[in-house]
Amino acid sequence: MSHTTETGEPVKRKRFYHQLYFWVLVGISIGIVIGLTAPGVASEMKWMADLFIKLVKVVIAPTIFATIVVGIAGMGNLAKAGGLAFKTVMYFNVTTVFALAIGLVVVNIIGPGRGLNYDVASFDSSAAAGTIESAGEASGTGLTGFILNLVPDSFASAFVDGMLLQVLLLAILVAVAVTMLGKRAAPVVSALDTFAKIMFGVIKLVMWVAPLGAMGGIAFTIGEHGSAILGSLATFMGSFWLTCILFLTLVLGPICRLAGFSIFKYLRYIKDELLIVLGTSSSETVLPRMMAKMEAAGTPKHVVGMTIPTGYSFNLDGTAIYMSMGAIFIAQAFGIDVPIWTQIGLLVFMLISSNGAAGVSGAGLVTLAASLTAFDSVIPVAGIALIVGIDRFMSEGRALTNLSGNGLGTLVIARWTGELDRERLAYVLDNPKSVDVDDLLDSDAPAAPVRA
């Protein structure tokens, strides 16, 4: 069998050393070697990962703004757009509830914090001082502060500060206004579409720095915290990674089957993006690649433009698992028995607070601390100091789970709305090499591969 596009042209396959994922793997391998053999040098290499992520973040907010406006305005129907937005947010919040719940179940069963027997009065929380301070700023005044924080101080400040929830709100307001203008707004939509493609082009260029970012990130992690995994916190880290796998197989797996495809084929389809995220600990680095791949898999452009960017604010499954497990782990470490109803209350609060995690620097740890601030009378927020040192090891799991859930949710929502090209999806999942992301980002519209 040969692979062709809809135009009948054969798909050009790149040699493995021309593929980005190959060089990311090389970067990760070199980083591991440096971390193990020269930990002193490795501990100074974090700037490489930070630089790469900063390069990506600088264009993420405008990219999300443009794609959402184009996606909603492209429907030409506010009722249809509102229905899609409602289904998107509802689906993402339901899966987040399952993520929080499965995290609570696993951490209660395994009990990784039991036996540590720390004393609250004598516990040294200095390692978490910066995180707790940031959490206080992020938490605001509870639910009221969360709602008020949705609105930026100015139109530009949302982009300057990188607050994705605020960018999302502005994009929806602008999209509604543009749609109400009708045909007069066509030039605006076209301009924003072109602008989004320019941003995709910038990110595509930046992505070739990903191997260096991955090398620096992995080297720093091993060089700075390598010994931490030999301690008692290893059980907690293992429990977290196990829970992420259970969530993918026991929650998202059945959802995939109901939607008519295999989660394992889906994960194989996005393996390049998963490798990039593994090295950089940030799912934002592959935003345009994921959007291009979801379109190539048979999802309409307007659905992708709505669901993928929205997922970056409302579908942080890995972060949700981390928050629920981290809270109970801290309680166990101090010998605190948290009643089931308090755990349910914590789950509900985290469901709200996790929606703002994408706009917070060091999202997982800071948002966990912000949530614990509201329950400090039960679980001491100072206990954050226990997991500061191993947070980096868990950030990869958070990012990988978040990315997997976002792409999967896009396909499921397209199937739910009856707009998924199931034949096209089946083909690309069976033949993932037929989709070249670099070619898709260069073209105006992803070509649909078909059987020869």
Automatic annotation (TrEMBL):
Single biological process term from Gene Ontology: L-aspartate transmembrane transport
Enumerate the NCBIfam families for this protein.
Answer: PRK01663.1
Q: Which domain of life is it from?
A: Bacteria
State the UniProt keywords alphabetically: Cell membrane, Membrane, Symport, Transmembrane, Transmembrane helix, Transport
The protein's location, in the record's own words, is: Cell membrane
**What is a single molecular function from GO for this protein?**
fumarate transmembrane transporter activity
The record's Gene Ontology cellular component field reads: plasma membrane
Stored PROSITE patterns: NA_DICARBOXYL_SYMP_2 (PS00714)
Q: Which spans are transmembrane here?
A: 20-38, 58-78, 90-110, 163-181, 202-222, 228-253, 338-358, 364-388
Which InterPro entries does its entry note?
Na-dicarboxylate_symporter, Na-dicarboxylate_symporter_CS, Na:dicarbo_symporter_sf
Membrane topology listed for this record: Multi-pass membrane protein
Q: What is this protein called?
A: Aerobic C4-dicarboxylate transport protein
Q: Does the keyword Membrane apply?
A: yes
